[in-house]
Design goal:
The chain is α/β, with parallel strands linked by helices. It has one domain (3-172): Alpha-Beta Complex (Protein-Tyrosine Phosphatase, Chain A), CATH 3.90.190. The chain contains six helices and five strands.
Length: 173
């Protein structure tokens, strides 16, 4: 089954060893950006330098060009092996990115179902609302992605997560 994996930075080595993803998405602040792990081809590693902020302030806030790169990269993933998405804790930026990719793959109309399935599989998920807003605009979802993430609430507070496995088609579960 095609899967989207979400992990904290510290969980990346174990997730790579356990699941052997073909693609990697790193969402870290510029000063914490990592190099491509040797197990991942460099051209299959998207590195987005952005801070985990909820408002568009400063040069390192999530922006439309970040989301455009994310969606383009996600569409280039053939789903023959998992894709691994991580940020610092695996709670906010990476969950927003996973949500955006899952919504893109499912198509319009599944935003709430995907958000609810995300909450079930990741009770701690707190998708970065600015990233969700930008993805909602990019995917032309007319506020449905934002509404869905708002509906599921903030999630349980944790310091960081282990690896969360999300089937590519969460909306059909």
């Amino acid at each position: 089954m095609p899967t989207v994996l979400v992990s904290s930075l510290s969980g990346v080595p174990q997730a790579i060893a356990n699941y052997r993803p073909s693609h990697l998405i790193t969402l870290l602040s510029p000063e914490n950006m990592i190099e491509t792990p040797c197990e991942i081809d460099r051209e299959r590693h998207l590195r987005l330098a952005l801070n985990d902020v909820a408002e568009p302030w400063g040069s390192d806030a999530p922006a439309q060009h970040h989301i455009a790169h994310l969606i383009e990269f996600g569409r280039g993933w053939g789903a023959e092996a998992p894709i691994l998405i991580h940020c610092w804790a695996g709670v906010s930026r990476s969950m927003a990115a996973a949500y955006a990719l899952l919504c893109d793959r499912a198509g319009p109309g599944y935003e709430l179902e995907i958000a609810r399935a995300l909450r079930t599989r990741a009770p701690h998920a707190c998708p970065n609302l600015l990233m969700v807003r930008l993805a909602d605009d990019a995917l032309r979802r007319d506020g449905r992605m934002v509404q869905a993430v708002t509906t599921i609430g903030r999630g349980e507070i944790i310091a960081e997560t282990g690896c969360v496995v999300l089937p590519l088609f969460l909306a059909q579960l």
